[in-house]
Design goal:
6 strands, Four Helix Bundle (Hemerythrin (Met), subunit A), 270 residues, alpha+beta, 2 domains, Nonspecific Lipid-transfer Protein, Chain A, six-stranded mixed β-sheet
Amino acid sequence: MATTSRAGHPLPYDIYRQAIERETLTFAEAAGSADPGTAVPSCPDWSLADLTRHVGMLQRWFGGLLTALVQERPTTRDVEPGPDDARERAAWVAAGVPAVAAVLRDTDPGAPMWAWGEDQHARFWARRMLFETLVHRVDAERAVGQETGIDPVLAADGVDEFLVNLPYAGGFAPAVTQLRGTGETIAFRCADLGDAGDVEWRVRLDPDGLRSLPPTAADDAGTSEPHAAVSASAADLLLLLYGRQSYEEPGYEVTGDAALLDRWFAHTAF
């Protein structure tokens, strides 16, 4: 995987479109395989029925934003809530896939539009929809006891997407705005991308807030050591950043200031 641009999408747009369709159908299959009242441990207080409604509504909301190419922040999320019968919701999510695919196919990814993150173009929403769906697919699979996996190239792109947009997330995750410091850096390193080589992402806590630095090949990260670093597979890094795993679990190599990491994760959970 090549290093990414700061305001563009690092993977071809068609990859997002195809992956959204695949991830949505896999999510619906997992969610529909068990009692809709099944608890989802990674989403406290949610059942499979709640998670399924959330995914279906969010995809329809994203689709509406893309169809209208909205230029200002919407004031409502007035979308179809899905069936009242929780047993029908997984099929409802799957039934929405053709419409989502059509919207993505018919939308110019470079069209300017409002987005809450860094990239103010339609492609922002395709990328965001993919990782919202992918992480919730993992939530559903784990809730029903299924094996789960994430393509490492997609996972690495998800790490980048999360870190690039995190400084802009204060509107719905106000704790992010409290991540301030005196230049402390945290590195997230992944080493399972094959021929693409190792990749490192760094964030810096400045007096005026959080900064996401451009990702680099690990060998080009410079001579300065970060104040804290986490190394893992791309999939494990993605799930760590989304609060689905802890850096204290097997599979993570941690160096540096653990208290800094704890402060990071306490302020980036949403």
